[in-house]
Amino acid sequence: MNYLVLLATCYLSYFSVSSSSELQKYEAIFNFGDSLSDTGNFLLSGALAFPVIAKLPYGETFFRHATGRCSDGRLVIDFIAEAFGLPHLPPYLAVTKGSQNFQHGANFAVAGATALDPDFFFKQNIGSILWTNDSLSVQLDWFKKLKSSLCKTKQECDSYLKKSLFVVGEIGGNDYNYAFFVGGKINQVKASVPLVVEAITRAASALIEEGAVELLVPGNLPIGCSAVYLTLFQTPNKAYYDPRNGCLKAFNSFSKYHNAQLQRGLDTLRVKYPHARIIYADYYGSAMRFIHAPDHHGFYSGTLTACCGGGGPYNFNNSARCGHTGSKACKDPSAYANWDGIHLTEAAYAHIAKGLIHGPFASPPL
Ligand SMILES: *[C@@H]1O[C@H](CO)[C@@H](O)[C@H](O)[C@H]1NC(C)=O
Ligand SMILES: *[C@@H]1O[C@H](CO)[C@@H](O)[C@H](O)[C@H]1NC(C)=O
User: What are the chain's domains?
Assistant: First the structure.
């Protein structure tokens, strides 16, 4: 092979998250989750709690207009779709517009969504702070409704769904966010972890019963490194911070606790459904790579400070959140891992996706 061609090939595959040819083909991808993977449902449902995602700077980097994604550009699910040569997933709620084609999959994720049903939060008198009632079980019902339009006979459905990838999550992060943001203590919130994990594994089981065979189930991100947590729970006590990265240790331990329980839940599912391929996606580990070595991954402005915000030590200001008066976006979002204090930049999502698709952060490998 010509040396120059070889060089050019290496160069290309280095800069795209993936070259699709090497990966197993899926016919469709169905995604369930929250703002980490919502490609427009929350916006289509009105986005009352977070209307700023309807305008720039949201979407500025890749789409050049706001799409309803809670980032400057593409999300992990977009990079996964690209890696398998599939179109970016259309949001399910565009179904009412009639023009959408869901043959290559659909996205049911809604920003603010919880794994547990709203009832759980209303019973604790914090239901009113939920951004949305479109919890995981609602998203599952949407899938069942859509399924009848995608395939007819059981045989046809089985063969179509067998060739589809089901991404269940990340979901559950908001169940904890809501609790922590109203003052819940770590030990109290820990009590809800088994319930959240059960809601996730129950949804995965339901999908397998519907015909899903390949499932990817992501865990939670290191929330102790998130600008909103670092701001709300900042303390002069240095012992609370991880000296290697400046993250809040107790909240990262919390994420790890959730992730460990989730993996145990997936192990149980694998025993129950030996024909299914249930893949755990280690978002925590994949994100930790760039949190430990920001410069090495191109995050020259660090990974803890938000690109878009209204001031404060982590550029997260609840009175001037990204998109609101008093906030502004940085010049180069790709130098930041954190986009708006809560969500990550396209650059960070690209790294996480790369870690799943090529790296060691999907087990078993995708
Ligand atoms: C969720 O449902 C409750 C009860 O029906 C309702 O009061 C509340 O406004 C809904 N929340 C949202 C964000 O739609
Ligand atoms: C947060 O935003 C408010 C409203 O714009 C502003 O008055 C305040 O100074 C900001 N706080 C910081 C720490 O920049």
Answer: 20-222+244-297 (3.40.50.1110)
Q: Collapse the DSSP code of 129 into the 3-class scheme (helix H, G, I; strand E, B; otherwise coil) and give the result.
A: helix
Per-residue tokens: 41: 């449902």
Q: Which of ligand 1's atoms lies nearest the C-alpha of 49? A: 13
Question: What integer pLDDT is reported at residue 100 of this predicted model?
Answer: 72
Task: Report d(CA 61, CA 71) in Å as an integer.
Answer: 9
Spatial separation of the C-alpha atoms in residues 353 and 362, rounded to whole Å: 10
List the structure tokens of 13: 């595959």
The amino acid at residue 180 is: F
How far is Cα of residue 79 from the mean position of the Cα atoms in its chain?
12
pLDDT at 96 over 90: no
Q: pLDDT tens digit string along 137-167?
A: 999 999 999 999 999 999 999 999 999 999 9
Per-residue pLDDT, 147: 96
Kindly calculate the radius of gyration of the chain based on its CA atoms and give it in whole angstroms: 20
Q: What is the pLDDT of residues 113-135, one digit of tens each?
A: 999 999 999 999 999 999 999 99
Active site residue 340: yes
Q: Is 313 in the pocket of ligand 2 (CB under 6 A)?
A: no
Nearest C-alpha neighbor of 157 from the set 165, 167, 149, 169? 149
Q: How confident is the model at residue 40 (pLDDT cuts 50, 70, 90)?
A: very high
- Which residue out of 45, 123, 133 has the highest number of ligand 1 atoms within 8 Å of its CB and is therefore the one to mutate? 133
318 lines ligand 2 (CB under 6 A): no
- On whether the CB atoms of residues 205 and 273 are closer than 8 A, the answer is yes
Helix (H) or strand (E) holding 362: strand 362-363
**Residue that has been written with the tokens 């606790």 in this structure:** 257
Helix (H) or strand (E) run with residue 31 in it: strand 28-32
Q: Buried b / exposed e across 106-130, counting CB within 10 Å, b at 16+?
A: bbbbbbbbbbbebebbeeeebeeeb
